[in-house]
TrEMBL record:
Biochemical pathway: Amino-acid biosynthesis; L-phenylalanine biosynthesis; phenylpyruvate from prephenate: step 1/1
Keyword terms of this UniProt record: Amino-acid biosynthesis, Aromatic amino acid biosynthesis, Lyase, Phenylalanine biosynthesis
Site location (Essential for prephenate dehydratase activity): 175
Name of this chain's protein: Prephenate dehydratase
EC number(s) per entry: 4.2.1.51
Species the sequence originates in: Bacillus infantis
Domain of life: Bacteria
Gene that produces this protein: pheA
InterPro entries: ACT-like_dom_sf (IPR045865), ACT_dom (IPR002912), Chor_mutase/pphenate_deHydtase (IPR008242), Preph_deHydtase (IPR001086), Preph_deHydtase_CS (IPR018528)
Length: 292
């Protein structure tokens, strides 16, 4: 089995793959769409791509590409803790406060806004394709007084010195990653925290109360929704699709019944996946609940 992830080595996605699939050969790709295209072209068996961060919200490129560009089901979800550190080339470790530019992924920069505003105010930042790509760039350009925001593995991988640890704004910083594949991926269901089903729905045009009717189809069936989010359809202003997460595995009655009701209302409906979800560091829902 071959797994693709947003590279280069030592991204947070790489960490999630190593934790979840330690025996699997992993291949880095430069972009998230590149990962999903590789699955579609059968270069790899599955891809692990970021889908949501606790501080910055959804990774829109992932959602939009899944809906608009590729027909690939979500077959698993991994939640991993995220710790952001400031790192520099060893030649600049002593004078790191003289940093002239900061590189990282846009989400990582946003997650560290308070630290950057207080400790490195006025220092420009530049977006990179990933946190690890930022670390690699700083390593390869020792003549620059540059810093990267990335994880500890990136510092080790690219020989950088961490000068400030845990610079993210809030302690609870986690990212959800989706496992995308054309074929079933072998996952240990006994270690899952639970199961969910993700549905994409479009509303009928010019009908008052359409969203209320959509939610009612789930509510009277007592289907718990853990997330509902709108995204533009890219067909004109005011046209949206909705991503809905249902807190249960697809069954033969309740979810098909809800889908049929939505279609009868004139909605477009597509199930993006029904799958187990995991959190690195936690075993099962029952064990996690008993720990509180």
């Amino acid at each position: 089995m071959k797994a693709g992830y947003l590279g280069p080595k030592a991204t947070f996605t790489d960490l999630a793959v190593r934790a979840m699939f330690p025996e699997t050969e992993s291949i880095p790709y430069r972009t998230i769409p590149g990962c999903m295209d590789a699955v579609l072209n059968e270069e790899i068996d599955f891809a692990v791509v970021p889908i949501e961060n606790a501080l910055e919200g959804s990774v829109n490129i992932t959602l939009d590409y899944l809906v608009h560009e590729v027909d690939l089901p979500i077959c698993g979800e991994i939640t991993a803790p995220i710790s952001q550190h400031l790192m520099v080339h060893p030649e600049h470790a002593e004078e790191w406060q003289d940093t002239e530019i900061i590189y990282s992924h846009s989400h990582a920069i946003a997650q560290c806004h308070k630290f950057l505003h207080q400790d490195l105010r006025g220092i420009p930042s530049e977006n990179m394709t990933s946190t690890a790509a930022a670390a690699q760039f700083v390593k390869e350009n020792p003549e620059m007084k540059a810093a990267a925001i990335a994880n500890e593995l990136a510092a080790e991988e690219y020989g950088l010195v961490i000068v400030k640890r845990n610079i993210h704004d809030f302690q609870y910083n986690h990212t959800r990653f989706a496992v995308i594949s054309k074929k079933p991926v072998k996952l240990d269901r006994t270690k899952a925290l639970g199961f969910k089903t993700t549905v994409m729905a479009t509303l009928p045009s010019d009908r008052a109360g359409a969203l209320h009717q959509v939610l009612s189809a789930f509510a009277w069936r007592k289907l718990n929704l853990t997330k509902i989010e709108s995204r533009p359809m890219k067909t004109g202003l005011g046209n949206y699709f909705f991503i809905i997460d249902i807190d249960m595995e697809a069954d033969d009655i309740l979810i098909p019944g809800a889908v049929a009701e939505l279609e009868a209302l004139g909605c477009g409906v597509k199930i993006l996946g029904s799958y187990p979800y995991y959190q690195i560091g936690r075993k099962t829902r029952d064990k996690a609940s008993n720990a509180h």
